[in-house]
Structure prediction request, 133 residues.
Amino acid sequence: MTLQAGLTASFDRTVDEPHTAIALGSGDVPVLATPQVLAWCEEASVMAVADHLGAGESVVGMRVRLDHIRATPVGVSVSMTATLTKIEGKRLTFDVVAADDRGEIASGQVIRVVVDRARFLDRAGAPGQSGSE
Prediction:
C-alpha cells in the first residue's frame, strides 16, 4: 500500500434526468439530487486511492459529512474532486468538492476504511465467498 496525503481524483459529469431529486426520490424538483452528489463524492474518493492499494484491498465507506448548498439544473456539468487529507491507520479522510459553472455546489468530507476485500465480503455474508456458502 502506497497511500499518502495529497492523492486526488477529479471527474466531470453532466446532470441528466436519472440524477435528479425526482428520479432518486429525495425531492420533487428536477435538479441534481443530494444522494447523487454524495455518490459522486464517494466515487471520486475511491478513484483517488484505487492505484495505491495493496493486492486484495479495497476501501469502504464509514462516514460522510456533506453540505449541498446550491441547486444544479439538468444539462449542466458538475466537477467532482476528492483529496486524501488524512491517514489514521486504515482510516482515510477525504475533502470533497463539487462545482458547476457558477461555482461550488457542495463540499464536505468522506471517511473510508481500507479493508481486505475477501475478508470483508466473508464477514458481510456475501454470496460466493468462502465460509458463507
The helical segments are 21-24, 34-49, 117-124. The beta strands are 8-14, 57-68, 77-88, 91-100, 103-116.
